[in-house]
Amino acid sequence: MSNYKSIHKCGRDEIIINKSKFIGTAAPVDSKEQAEKFIESIRKEFKDATHNCYAYIIGKNKNIQRYSDDGEPTGTAGMPILNVIDRENLANLAVVVTRYFGGVLLGAGGLARAYTRGCKTALENGIIVEKDLYYDVSFNLDYTFLGKMDNELLKNNIIVKDKIYSDHVTFKLIVKDSKINKLCNIINEITRGKAEISLGQASYYSVRDGKIIVDK
Fold it and tell me: In terms of C-beta distances under 8 Å and separation of at least 24 residues, what long-range contacts does 112-115 make, across chains too?
């Protein structure tokens, strides 16, 4: 499976429930080591907190899953956080919900609901996205074919990252993995097979509502 759902960036929000403060922090991670490092950084940041409960899911097939109640009653914190991540069908992310106890007991059900809300707000602030695999593709083109190539790329929603003009035009594209073969056919048809196509590095991009999110 080349694509999956995750979050675009680190997200954080806080809520107050019966005088207890819950701070949810979510981060995209690519490995168990990254997840553990993120969790440890939150523990250090909120070292005076009553609890730092967490969950994470790693791998597009969700093969690594961990959670911790960090001293809260069993099943009231870590598992509710994990359940939110799983229900949203997300992967490669970690969430820590930090609690500062406000003096009012919430009960098992109240705790589960509070940690669920803390996780949801963190994910919303991190922006839930599709993570789609794109390749860097470049090729040179004679000016004779420029107009036709521009039209074909626009018609097929191919993203042009850059165009360099010299004695020829160098196209630099970002192409979804599922469109690579179609793009190659287009280039070969327009240039009669004379263009040298360079397939570069593959990277995951955040996609929302069919558009790549570009950070400014």
Answer: 112/75, 112/76, 112/77, 112/80, 113/80, 114/15, 114/17, 114/20, 114/22, 115/22, 115/53, 115/72, 115/76, 115/77, 115/78, 115/80, 115/81
In angstroms, rounded to a whole number, what is the distance separating the alpha carbons of residues 197 and 202? 15
Residue 125 has φ and ψ, to the nearest 5°, of -75, -25
Which residues are within 8 A (CB) of 111 and not within 5 positions of it... i.e. 6 or more apart? 72, 73, 76, 77
Contact in structure between 4 and 131 (CB atoms under 8 Å): yes
For the cut 80, the answer to whether the pLDDT of residue 2 exceeds it is no
209 has pLDDT over 90: no
Is 168:143 a contact under the CB 8 Å cutoff? Answer: yes
Contact predicate 71/133, CB 8 Å: no
Query: How much is the pTM?
Result: 0.85
Q: Kindly state the tokens that stand for 44.
A: 């250090």
- Is 190 in contact with 145 (CB distance < 8 Å)? yes
Mean pLDDT of 172-185: 92
26 in Cβ contact with 10 (< 8 Å) = yes
Res. 113 pLDDT band, cuts 50 70 90? very high
Residue type for position 57:
I
Structural domains in the chain plus CATH codes: 4-126 (3.30.230.30), 132-209 (3.30.70.240)
